[in-house]
Amino acid sequence: MTAGEPPRTRPAERRQVAALPWRRGPEGIEILLVTSRETRRWVTPKGGRMAGMTDAGSAAQEALEEAGVEGETTAEPIGTFRYLKVLKRRAPRWCVVAVHALEVRIEHATWHEQAERDRVWVSRDEGVRRVDEPDLKALIAAFDP
Prior knowledge:
The chain has three helices and eight strands; from the N terminus they run ββββαββββαα. It is an alpha+beta fold. Strands 1, 2, 3, 4, 5, 6, 7 and 8 form an eight-stranded mixed β-sheet that branches. Helix 2 runs antiparallel to helix 3. It is globular and about 65 Å long.
């Protein structure tokens, strides 16, 4: 930096919300994961906070759009995780995601982003293996409704 140059600042972390869709299966707790649109990694449904909605409501809406599920969402997050959002046409940006558990009551056969994503029900252990973000792995591993 030279004299007269403004100090460089990091862009602010983006705040997002996510749902951790779950159900009780024959072998115990099952977690629903979806693929991300661009990188095709396994993730939980997540997105930006929505104006006029609570964070829990926004998380539930993301679960409906991205995974085609509805249910009872916790008002308070069960935890948070950070990840580096990498998009094809923009610079990477850190995001902090508040995760709300969503007990699935309805699973739609078709949903808004069905052509863009895959979804899969997995055991808690398999969910930990499939996701990449260490903090999200820890949240899934510790999840006990």
